[in-house]
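Final report, closing paragraph on structural work. Over the funding period we assembled a curated collection of sequence-structure pairs, and we close with a single example.
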Amino acid sequence: MPVRQRPLPTNLSLRYLKLEAKRRLAAGEFPSLHDVQDAIAREHGQHSWTALRKFISDRPAVASQALPHLEWAVARFAGAAEPGWAAPGERELRQHFSDEVFRVFSAGELVAEIVGKAPDLRLDLIVVDQAPLVVRARIADTELFAAAEESPPHRRTRSCSASSAGRNTRC
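Its predicted structure, as stored:
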C-alpha cells in the first residue's frame, strides 16, 4: 500500500509528531510505537523516525510575529479563574491586539471571549505550524490560529479557535 505523503509545515514540531504517534498508537492504528513513528516519518518523506528527527533539528526555526502575542494571552489569562486575578485593561490589550480586533470587539468582550477559555489555558501550548505572520497551535483538543500585523509591533489581527468537535468561536 503506497504511503500518503504529507507536506511538511513551515516549522515542523517534533513534540507535536510525538503526540500524534502516541495518539495513533492508542487508537490501535499500529501495533507498536516504533511502527507508528516509522509510518509518520515515511508520510513526511523520510525513511525513518531517526531521519525525520534529524531533518527537523537541522531546519532553521521560523519565528512568527504572532506567537509572542498568543503566548502572552495564554500566560496572562491562564489564572483567570483564580481568586484575585485582575483582567487586563484596554491599554494592556492594545499592546497585543490590533485596532482591527477592537473594531470587532470591545475590550470587555475580548476579555470575556478569552476568559471563556481560561481552564484550557493552564495546559501546554503546542505550536503546530508557524510562518512570519501566522501561527497555528493546539491546547488540549482546541486548535488555535493567530495572525499578526505586517508592520511592528506585529499585534494580533485575527484569532480563531476550534475544538475537536468542530465548534468555531468568533474569529
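Residues 50 and 136 are 25 Å apart (CA to CA). Residues 14-58 form one domain. We thank the funder for supporting this effort.
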